[in-house]
Amino acid sequence: MGVFLLSLVFALWRIRPFSFLSKEEFTQFILHYPSQKKIAIFYAQWYNFFIKYKIEFKPRVIKDCKSINKKILRLIFSKIEILSDALQGDVKKLTNYSPEYCLRAGDYKILFETENERIIIYRIMHRKEAYR
Predict the structure, then answer these.
(1) What Å distances lie between residue 132 and 14, 38, 43, 127, CA to CA?
(2) Each residue of 88-107: pLDDT tens digit?
(3) pTM above 0.85?
(4) Domains along the sequence of the chain with CATH
């Protein structure tokens, strides 16, 4: 079914690029079909459809950052910057867990949710502690 859906999406893209997909639907397509993510992002670049998300941090993130090495923080914030362009990066949808998504940055996990054109980051935690 995933291949059929992907071929349908590409066929419609040739007719009218992304006119049938809202930004939220495009984001969901990328997150639900990770094997097709590179192809979808390539087409999105081709048609200049990248979604630039606004990033918001919860107060708990500041507390989390105080305990992390500055070198690692640079890596984490570079991954967050990449994340703001159409949810690129090592993003995984979490099942039965809130927040909904997780981004891996080295040994750290960035837990976040998306709402419209915003990414709300809730926690930045070491991978051993992230899901406790």
Answers:
(1) 45, 31, 38, 10
(2) 788 888 888 888 899 999 89
(3) no
(4) 2-46 (no CATH), 54-126 (3.30.2310.20)
